[in-house]
Amino acid sequence: MVKKEIILEGLNCAQCANKIEQKVSRISNVNSASVNFISKTLTIETGHIEKIDEILKQANEIILRLEPNVIIKEKDTEKMSQKVFKVIGLDCANCASKIEKEINKIDGIKNATMNFATNKLIIEFSEKNRMKEVTEAAIKAAKRLEDGIEIIDEDMITERGNGKNQVERDNHIEFNNNIKKLVCFGISVVLFSIALLLKVPFWIEFALFFIAYLFVGLDVLIKAIKNIIRGQVFDENFLMAVATIGAFSIKEFPEGVAVMLFYQVGEFFQDYAVNRSRKSITALMDIRPDFANIKVGSEIKRVTPEEVKVGNIIIIKPGEKIPLDGKVIEGKSRVDTSALTGESVPRELAAGDEALAGFINNSGVLTIEVTKEFGETTVSKILDLVQNASSKKAPTENFITKFAKYYTPIVVLSAVVIALLPPLIIQDATFGEWIYRALVFLVVSCPCALVVSIPLSFFGGIGGASRNGILVKGSNYLEALNNVDTVVFDKTGTLTKGTFNVTEINAEGKISKEELLELAALSESYSNHPIALSIIRAYGKELNKDAIKDYNEISGYGINAVIENKKVSVGNIRLMKKENIDVADRPVIGSVVYISVDGEYAGHIVISDEIKDDAKNAVTSLKEIGIKNITMLTGDNDSVGKAIANKLGIEKVYTELLPDQKVEKLEKIIEHKTTKDKVVFVGDGINDAPVLARADVGVAMVGLGSDAAIEAADVVLMTDEPSKIITAIKIAKRTRNIVWQNISFALGVKILVLILGTFGIATMWEAVFADVGVALIAIINAMRAMKMQK
C-alpha cells in the first residue's frame, strides 16, 4: 500500500473539498481518498505503486477542474527524505561529535545529527534518488572514525518485532562486554598488587606492571593507533596512551598502571551511567504498544501494531495498552492517559468515544475499530517528535561543540610547552619532573564531561516535559523558554473552553426562529469551527446537505451559500458589511452570528463561551514567575474580548482581528522586544498556524488527537490547561540550571587541576578524576532534568 499526501493551498470551500474527495476516490486503482479541510490535505492510498504517477495526474486534473485557484503541492514528508539509524557500540561522546561533523561533509546530505544520548544517527538527504549511495558513504565514514561500531537502519529493527530482538541483543552484548572488562580489571588489580607489595627484581617488577597495564589498557592503545592512522589524533585514547606511556618512560610504573586502571574503571562506570540514563529516558517514553489483538472472524490473533489496517477490529483486555487510534464500538472501561497527557486521573471510555494509542486499559474489555494505521497514530507522532528532538540543538550545545573543538588542542599544546620550555629556562628543573606535569595536562584535556552531560541534560529535560504532557520539538525551544518576556494568548479554545452554546435566537421579519436556526445550521454544516458546531448541536436534527449549493467559507468573515435557491450569508458583522447588509452591531456579551437571506437581514444568534477553570490561575502564575507582558488576541467583538481579558487580569487585549491581522499584531509585539527576549504565542492549534509559526516559540494547546497542531507548533501541550505553559517554563529553567551547573563544575575542576598540575601539586590521580570522575558526576546530575514534576 502506497500513501501520497497533497497540500491544497487556497482551498476555502468545504463542499468542494467533499466533491474532490468523492471524485478522487473513484479514480481507477485508488483504494481510498480523503480530504482534511482543516489542514487542506488530500491523502490518497493505492496498492499499485506502478500507477501512482498516473493517479496523481488524474487527481490534479480533478482538483483544478473543481477549484482552479487551488495551488497543488505534494507533501514532502520528512520520512521520505530522512533515515534514522541505531548506532551500537559507540561509547565516546566526543567521537559522536566527530562522526556528526564528518558525515555532514558528504555530498547529498542535507543535515546529519548524531544523538549520543539515544545512540541514534538521523540523516536528512538532499537527493532522494541517491539515498542508498549516500547512506553507504555515511556508514563508511562513521566506521572509519570509530572502529567496531554497528549501524542498523531503524526500519529494519521495527520489522524484527518492534525492536525487541534488537534490545535483547544489545543487552546481551553489553552484558558480555561488561564481564570481559571486569575479568581484565580483576587480573590487572592482582598483578598490580603483587608488583606493588612484593620486593622483586626490577625486570620482574617491570614485567608485572607491564602485563597489568596491557590487561587494562591494551584496547586503549589499539584504538589510539587506529585513530592516528585515520588522522584522528586528539582523542581520549591517544591522550591516555601518551600520558601512561610517558609515566612508564620516566619509570613511574605504579602510577602508569594505576592511572590507566582508574581511567578504565571510571570509563566503565561512566558508560554504565550513560546506558542507565538512555534506558531511563527510553522507559520514560515507553508508550509504544508491543502488540495488537486483532479479531479475525471468531478468533483473536496477536500481531504487531504495524500489521493492523484501518477498519480492522481489535480487542483490548484489562492491563493492556491500546495499540492504535480508533473508535470504541463495544465495551466500557477506565483508561490511564498519563503517558500522553501527564494526567494521573483516569478517564471513562464507552461506545462511540475516541481511543488513542498509548492509553492503558484499566478495567473492562474494549472492542475498537481502527481509524489510523500505526505510523499515523498520535503516539507514533509523539515518539518520533521526542526521539528526533535532539536534531534541533540549543545554543549552549552548539557552544560546547565549538568549545570542545578548540579546548583539547590548546591544552595539548600547553602540555608540550610545559614539558619542553621550563627545563630549558629554569635552573635545576628536570625534564622528568616537567614531563610528568605535562602528562597531567594531557589527561585533563578531554572535554567528555561537557560533551556527554550537556546534551543528556537537554534530552532529560525534554523527556521530563513529555512525562508532564508537554512535547518540546527541540532543545533550542526548551532553552528559548528561559528568556520569555511576553506571552500572547489566543482566546477561543485557549483561555476559554471553546464549548459554545446557543443562548439566544432573534429572528426578524417573516422568518421564524426555527427557520433561522435551520438556515444557520445548514450553512455551518461543513465547518469544524466551535461556533458552527454549537449551532448544529442546537438545531439537533438531521441536516439535508443536498439542499446546499455554491458553498463558500470566507476565513475571518463567515459563510456564503445557496440553500433551496436562497442566497444565505452567515457570519460576523464584517461579513454583513462586506455583503452590504444593513444591520447594527449588537452590544451583547458573547459571539453574535448574523444571518441574511437574499440580501435582507433575517436575524442573529448569540453564542456564549466559558472561561477555562485554570485560565485565571495561569495568568496570575505567569506574572509571579516574572513574565512582564501578557496579551490576548481575538477575533471576537470588542465588548466580549475586553470582558474576558478583564476577568482574567490581562491588561492588553486586541479584538476583532482577522487571522492575518493576528500575525501583523504579533509582528509589532516582536518588533518592540530586545534581541534576547522571546515572545511566546499560545493557541489552540486549529486556526493559529500562521501565528504559531511567526512567534519565537509557538505553543499549541491541543488536547488529544490534533495531529495538525502537533506538526505546526514548537511546543505542544497535550491537555486543555493553559497553566501547562508555566510547567514548561519551570522545566526549561530547571534544565538550564543543571546545564550550567555541569559546565561550571566540569570547567572549574579541570582549570583547578591544570593550575595545580602546572605547579606540581596535582598528580595524575587528580587528573583522572578531573576527566572521568567529573564526567560521571555530571552525567548523574544531568539525569535530574527528567525528574521535574508538575
TrEMBL record:
Q: Which UniProt keywords apply?
A: ATP-binding, Cadmium, Cell membrane, Magnesium, Membrane, Metal-binding, Nucleotide-binding, Phosphoprotein, Translocase, Transmembrane, Transmembrane helix, Zinc
What the entry lists under InterPro entries is as follows: ATPase_P-typ_cyto_dom_N, ATPase_P-typ_P_site, ATPase_P-typ_TM_dom_sf, ATPase_P-typ_transduc_dom_A_sf, ATPase_P-type_domA, Cation_Transport_ATPase_IB, HAD-like_sf, HAD_sf
- Name any GO cellular component annotation: plasma membrane
Which organism is this protein's natural source?
Answer: Ruminiclostridium herbifermentans
Cellular compartment(s): Cell membrane
Q: Which residues cross the membrane?
A: 182-200, 206-225, 406-426, 438-459, 739-761, 767-786
Pfam families, per the entry: E1-E2_ATPase, HMA, Hydrolase
Identify the coding gene: cadA
Keyword Translocase (UniProt)? yes
- Residues annotated as domain HMA: 2-64, 81-146
- Describe its membrane topology: Multi-pass membrane protein
Keyword Nucleus included in the entry's annotation: no
What is this protein called in UniProt? Cadmium-translocating P-type ATPase
UniProt lists the family membership as follows: Belongs to the cation transport ATPase (P-type) (TC 3.A.3) family. Type IB subfamily.
Highest taxon of the lineage = Bacteria
| Catalytic reactions on record | Cd(2+)(in) + ATP + H2O = Cd(2+)(out) + ADP + phosphate + H(+); Zn(2+)(in) + ATP + H2O = Zn(2+)(out) + ADP + phosphate + H(+)
Q: Can you provide one Gene Ontology molecular function annotated for this UniProt record?
A: ATP hydrolysis activity
